[in-house]
Design a protein that fits this description.
CATH superfamily of the largest domain: Conserved hypothetical protein from pyrococcus furiosus pfu- 392566-001, ParB domain
Number of strands: 6
Order of helices and strands: HEHEEHEEHEHHHHHH
Oligomer: single chain
Helix content: 40-55%
Number of domains: 2
Length: 278
């Protein structure tokens, strides 16, 4: 519960000290829990957009956005943590000046953000966001510019997630799937996207050899999904071999085993039986 003495200067000073204390305690808690180093680091806008693949942008104008949707910054990632708590005392003077203005009810200009999926990244107004968090506000006014990307921002929580997103984007450039086929290709290990890309390309090369015909990447991707991936996953599901993995992870796991057993893409009961035995 927020303590208010009725003196804006004193209250603003207290707000800043509490925000700094929470930031330090959060770092200590993360260290004690052995959490990843990036758990309290805000997401860098440029790295997120690069990982997802920029398509374009458009201005949406002024909107009211939720504070908890603001997860990153264009250029101030070292001054604040993930919850926009100040990481040092050098921001104190400007921070407290804004806090006093907020407490006096003075008009505060909207911040400026980029929207990527459901996530927002501050380009102007970091101190205003920090003060709003400290004063327990839920929303803030913002001028929003939406950035469209090649793949979705869903699932991004920490900086480390960008590696998976980047490799997924590269995979979908090499294997241009769409619809349910695109949605089915989900992997948690970024390196597996490279392995799956090479698997599809090798399958497509053999297909063109067998049929003595050239196919482009989109055609190979579609046929791989319909003629290889779906039938194999169906058998794996029926045999109870998927478990808690994604379909793509299950496919890769048995695909690697299959190449130890045979050098063709035949799938039959004998192969499944050998796979079950490990």
């Amino acid at each position: 519960m927020q303590t208010d003495t009725g003196f804006p200067r004193a209250d603003a000073e207290n707000d800043f000290l509490k925000a700094r204390r929470r930031q330090v305690l959060s770092r200590l808690a993360a260290w004690l829990r052995r959490e990843p180093d990036d758990v309290n680091i805000m997401l860098p806008f440029d790295e997120v957009v690069e990982a997802l693949g920029r398509v374009g942008e458009r201005r949406l104008g002024p909107q009211v956005i939720r504070l908890d949707s603001i997860v990153g910054s264009v250029d101030r990632t070292r001054d604040f943590d993930r919850r926009f708590r100040p990481t040092s005392g050098r921001l104190r003077e400007r921070w407290e000046r804004l806090a006093r203005a907020q407490r006096r009810g003075e008009p505060i200009p909207p911040i400026e953000v980029y929207r990527v999926g459901d996530l927002h990244f501050v380009s102007d107004g970091h101190h205003r966001v920090s003060v709003a968090h400290a004063l327990k506000q839920d929303t803030i006014e913002a001028y929003v510019t939406e950035v469209r990307t090649k793949i979705s921002a869903d699932g991004i929580r920490f900086r480390g997630d960008l590696i998976v997103k980047n490799d997924r984007r590269l995979f979908l450039e090499r294997v241009p799937l769409s619809g349910p086929a695109r949605a089915a290709m989900v992997l948690s290990d970024p390196w597996q996207y490279t392995i799956l890309s090479e698997t599809v390309e090798a399958w497509g090369f053999r297909l063109m050899q067998d049929e003595s015909k050239f196919y482009n990447r989109a055609e190979i991707a579609a046929r791989f999904y319909a003629e290889e991936f779906e039938p194999v996953v169906t058998m794996l599901r029926q045999a109870g071999l998927i478990g808690d993995r994604t379909e793509a992870e299950a496919y890769l796991a048995v695909s690697e085993q299959r190449y130890r057993l045979m050098r063709t893409h035949r799938w039959d009961d004998d192969v499944i039986a050998k796979l079950r035995k490990g």
